[in-house]
Amino acid sequence: MLVDLRTNRDVVPHSFNFLERNRVVRLTDGGFWLSDEKKVYEYQRFTALIKDLQKSRFKILDIGCGKGRIPRKLIEDSNINGEFSYSGFDVDCNDIQENHAFFQYDKRFIFNHIDYMNKMYSPNASTIEPVFDFLDYSYDLIWAWSVFSHLDIKDFEIYMRLISEKLVRNGLAFLTCFSRYEAKQNPEYTPNYIFLENSDLPANGGKQNNNDLTAVCYHPSWIDDLLMKLGLEVVMSCYPVYGGNFQTGLYLRKV
Q1: Residue-range domains of the chain with CATH
Q2: The whole model's pTM is what?
Q3: What is the pLDDT averaged over residues 53-66?
C-alpha cells in the first residue's frame, strides 16, 4: 500500500503526475524497496525487482548498460534465485567492447552496440533510428538507469516504445528521469534542461542549450500521456533514486 508520508494516510496513485506532486514513497515490504530520501543504490533496486518477478526463470534487458554495472554484480551475487539471461546494449562502443572481454566465457550475458547519436555519449554516431533486431522477442525485466534523463523527446519516445514492445504482460521495468519538479527545487541544474509543459509543445520549448545537452526535464503529465498510449502502468515512483541524485525513479508494469 502506498502511503502519503506527510499525512500518513493511504493514497491511490492515479498517475505519475500525481506521484510527483505528492512525493509518495513506499517504505517497506515486498521487492519494491524504496528510499525515504536516503541513499539507496542501483543494484539494491535491481535485485528488489527480481524478487517481485517471482519467477524461477527470467530474461533481463538493460538499456544503456554502460560498463556493465548490473551484470558485474550479478555474477558475484549468490542470493539470486533462479535461472536468468541478460541482454544489454549501449551507444558507447568502448563500453561494449569492455563488456565483451569481461563476460566472454559466460554465455548468460550478451552485449550489443548500437550506432545511434546521443549528444552526451555518442555525438558523432548515426542519426538514423536504430533497429533492435538483435533483441529477443520479449523480456521479464527491463532496466534503464539514467538513460531517459539524457534523451530528447524523439529518443524518449523511441526507447519508451521499445520497453512497451519488449516487456511481457505483467513484466516489470524501472527507469529514471528528470521531471519539472526536480528542476524547480534545484534551479542550478536548469540551464541545460528542456522543459515540456505538455505534449503540445515542441522539444525546444522553454530553456535549453542544444549545444551542450546534459540533462532533459519532462513534465509528468506528458510522460503520463505517453505511458497510457503505450500500455504501461506506473506502479509507483521514488525520489530521489539515491542521495544527492535528483532523478525520479519510475516502476512500470505492462498491462
Answers
A1: 3-178+219-254 (3.40.50.150)
A2: 0.79
A3: 94
